[in-house]
Amino acid sequence: MFSDPATNLAKLGLNDGMKVVDLGAGSGFYSIEAAKKVGSSGRVYAVDVQKDLLERLRSVGASQGLHNIEVIWGNAEKIGGTKVKESLADRVIASNVLFQIAKLDDFVLEIKRILKPGGKVLVVDWSGVTPLSPKTIVSEMQARALFEKNGFKVDQSFGAGDHHYGIVLVR
User: Which DSSP helix (H) or strand (E) runs through 116?
Assistant: First the structure.
């Protein structure tokens, strides 16, 4: 299996009423699944730099009756760039984005800023260079070290599909 958002999100412990931020939401597969899990009393903030992807996500969510997704045009590589309030999120999703980030420390510090103390972040990214993957990746070991040096603790790690690793970290 390539990488299944529903299976990977199960590791994050989403519950009714939670606030979730999906950084680099892209096509919105994680946002849609998270919106289903947190229910109508919860909220998913889908952040991306590509407006067209956000508009598509808004449309797809609405067509599925999911009115708890808020799309935000923002930049997760800048502290404050997501436009999400400090300590708002119970959970943060960072799927297939690390390899695209130039300022990794600022990215992690932005996650720390928006995540409540004790909140969790799900990191899913490429586990190795393959014909399908980008040429440059951030390995699981590099990702763990990056988050740990910025104050996060590893809760669990798992195989997140044939070509991806998954890590859940706690702030």
Answer: strand 115-126
